Amino acid sequence: MSSEPRMLEVRKNVLKQNDLIARSLRDRYRQAGVLVVSLVSSPGSGKTVFLEKTLTTLRSKYRVAALVGDLATENDAARLARSRAPVKQILTGAVCHLEAAMVQTALEGWNLNELDFLFIENVGNLVCPSSYDLGEDLRFVLLSVTEGEDKPLKYPTIFNSADVAVITKLDLAAAVEFDEEAACANIQAVRPGMEVFKLSAKTGVGMPEYVQFLESRLDRSRSAATA
Amino acid sequence: MHELSIAMSIVEMAQEEAERHGRAQVHAVHLKLGRLSGVVKEALLSSYEMACESTALEGSQLLIEEIPVEVFCPECRVARMVQSIQWFCCPECGTPTPTVLHGKELEVVALELKQ
């Protein structure tokens, strides 16, 4: 005679392991006073150029570094090395997103106290990275004008999980008849109140406002840490 | 497609829990899955079957309770279900709100065990 199944209460987050590592990373970032920004977007949205310009611009005043996630090839790290900032590639193999443990491993041997900004470029993917906390202070979601205004509605989860939206490749907006107003309305629909920057890393349009934002966030997080 | 690695974590977690409770056989795993968790139910169910293969959980069931997205309306000052995850606003008064109370769950709630 088979006995009736009994219920055992568990109540455990499936991503608990990732969240624990993310939490310890967050503590390390805070102690070191480094502002950590992660970038998520579809493949080809201009993340790497955007990051290269960011690193080059900030490098004159700040100590900056980057981790870049990709399934394969070290091309992005090689491109970013042109900014002369320390850059490390994280090759994820078949994995379609970065996890906190990968970031932790990549940071081995790095002294975070020697940094003001650390950027983490996630694998180009608008689905999987949304579930994984990397301990970052800010998550940026990038949307290029060539992708269409309705991207936020197609991928609401990742847009909702991000803190800031960046509309990239603004120099191509006229050529693709990009409807900026509609794009912004869609971003606000899936994440009300989200800060949005519109820029072109190629021409530099909109970059100063965005850099100013990063600087103010660094100041803010450092004064919060010492308060 | 990260559902397979999520499914493997679920299987691992269930195995550990079952072992701590007298190596009971897991009959079913109850999971809460938020609409904003970034995990697709159908993909998770098929991944679960794969993840169970050749483990003590082979043949067990994954029972998913989908959790709708609940936000806090700052105007009505109460929790409300959003009507669409493409529109984060109060369904009653229309006020936009970014405050998500529920819908991000990815949680093993309980196991059904057989001795």
Write up what this structure looks like.
In chain A, 37% of the residues lie in helices and 21% in strands. With 227 residues, chain A is an alpha/beta fold. The longest helix of chain A is centred in the last third of the chain and has 20 residues, at 207-226. Chain B has a domain at 3-68 and 102-114: hypothetical protein PF0899 fold (2-Layer Sandwich), CATH 3.30.2320. Chain B has two helices and six strands, in the order αβαβββββ. In chain B, the strands form two sheets. In chain B, strands 2-1-6 form a three-stranded mixed beta sheet, covered by helices on one side. In chain B, β3 and β4 (78-81) form a beta hairpin. In chain B, α1 crosses α2. The model of chain B has no long low-confidence stretch (mean pLDDT 95). Chain A binds chain B through residues 2-3, 5-15, 17, 95-97, 127-128, 130-131, 153, 156-158, 160-161, 188-194, and chain B through 1-2, 5-6, 9-10, 13-14, 17-18, 21, 24, 27-28, 31, 36-39, 85-89, 96-98, 100, 106-115.
Into which percentage range does the β-strand content of chain A fall?
A: 15-25%
Helix content percent band of chain A: 25-40%
Q: Do you know the CATH architecture of the domain at 3-68 and 102-114 in chain B?
A: 2-Layer Sandwich
Largest sheet of chain A: 7 strands, parallel
Residue-averaged pLDDT of chain B, rounded?
95
User: What is the H/E order of chain A?
Assistant: EHEHEHEHEEHHEHEH
Question: Based on CA inertia axes, which overall geometry of chain B fits?
Answer: elongated
Which secondary-structure class do the elements of chain A indicate? alpha/beta
The helix tally of chain A amounts to 8
Largest sheet of chain B: 3 strands, mixed
Shape of chain A: globular
CATH topology of the largest domain in chain A, by name, is: Rossmann fold
The CATH top-level class label of the domain at 3-68 and 102-114 in chain B: Alpha Beta
Report the top-level CATH class of the largest domain in chain A.
Answer: Alpha Beta
Low-confidence stretches of chain A: none
Alpha carbon gap, first and last residue of chain B:
35 Å
What percentage of residues of chain B falls in helices of 4 or more residues? 25-40%
Number of helices of chain B: 2
- The radius of gyration of chain A is 19 Å
